[in-house]
Write a structure and sequence with these properties.
Length: 196
Amino acid sequence: MAASSTPGSPRLRRTAGDRRAQLVQIGLELLPTTPVQELTIDEVARRAGISRSLLFHYFATKREYYTAVTRAAADFMLDHLLPSPGTSPEEQVSGMLDRYVGWVETFRESHLAFVRGAGGGDPWVAEVYEETRERLVQVALTALELPDDVRRRQLVLAWFAFTEDLVGSWADEPTMSRPELLALLRDVLDRLVAHS
């Protein structure tokens, strides 16, 4: 019997949108162990079962692909951090802090690469990073029932910078318990906004 007569499942042709989503998903799956700037196009293409040149049919440049993965990761983080509708203001801030610490513990290397990439002058990372922080600042201002003005935005942004740095170093070398870390972060935020 010829091999061609053996029934097989028909090969499904992916739409361009489906293929782009698949390639971004592969990037997301690699992020827990590989910062986005270190993803190799060859590895992504191999996992997708396509050639490197075909990947560039869906993403014109490596930077465009990295930007898409970075944006998807930021959206995923925001979905994880943002409070559920109907959550009390106190639980919104405390819950967001707790989830953020858990996020950094789980995705430490990738998250640090995201933060450092934004600070290191990668414009495509910086843009996504700034958008993400602006959304988190807005959530914090709303949860704390603070007016959205320049002064309070500056204070909450400064607190986010402090939080990123402390949580990142704590995840690497814990110098206090997790509850102590969360209490300290909340205390610093409360003190800052009390003087606003």
